[in-house]
Amino acid sequence: MGEDFYAEMEQVLLGQRREILETIAGEDEDFRAMINSMGTKDLGDIAADDIASRKMEALNQHAANRLKSVEAALSRLKNGRYGVCVQCGAKIPEERLRAMPSAVLCIACKSGEEGPRRRSW
């Protein structure tokens, strides 16, 4: 993997980070608007707002997890460990990194992590 590839991946990761932060900021604004509108609502409206609030919370948690992955990938880029499987030390193929820029496992280790799905009944 050459310097051009690393520069490209850094730009992709920075773009992903920006998008995630914008998503989180937008969800926070939506949440504030929902709280401000709670004034004189009936029980049904409050229940619907509670469901919406829980959904926003789950979306924020998902976004926060994605942000952590992107930040970790940017850190690996800076310290020269980007594209190296954290489990076995093998190089992660460029195709995998292009598909998932924050990948930390090579395909073999990821497949082994997921393993065959067995039913336990």
What are the SSEs and their pairings?
Layout lengths: L2 H34 L6 H37 L14 H6 L7 H8 L7
Helix pairs in contact: 1-2
Describe the structure.
The chain has 121 residues and is mainly α. It has a domain at 3-83: Four Helix Bundle (Hemerythrin (Met), subunit A). Helix content is 70%, strand content 0%. It has four helices and no strands. It has helices at residues 3-36, 43-79, 94-99, 107-114. Helix 1 (3-36) runs antiparallel to helix 2. The longest helix has 37 residues, at 43-79. The protein is elongated, with a radius of gyration of 20 Å. The N and C termini lie far apart (46 Å). The mean pLDDT is 82.
What distinguishing features does this structure have?
121 residues; mainly alpha; Four Helix Bundle (Hemerythrin (Met), subunit A)
Question: What is the gist of this entry?
Answer:
It is built from four helices and no strands.
Indicate the mean pLDDT: 82
Distance between the termini: 46 Å
Roughly how many Å is the radius of gyration?
Answer: 20 Å
Can you give the helix content as a percent range?
over 70%
CATH architecture of the domain at 3-83: Up-down Bundle
Low-confidence stretches: none
Class by SSE composition: mainly alpha
In the CATH scheme, what's the topology name of the domain at 3-83? Four Helix Bundle (Hemerythrin (Met), subunit A)
Order of helices and strands: HHHH
What's the tally of helices? 4
Number of E-type strands:
0
CATH secondary-structure class of the domain at 3-83: Mainly Alpha
Into which percentage range does the β-strand content fall? under 5%
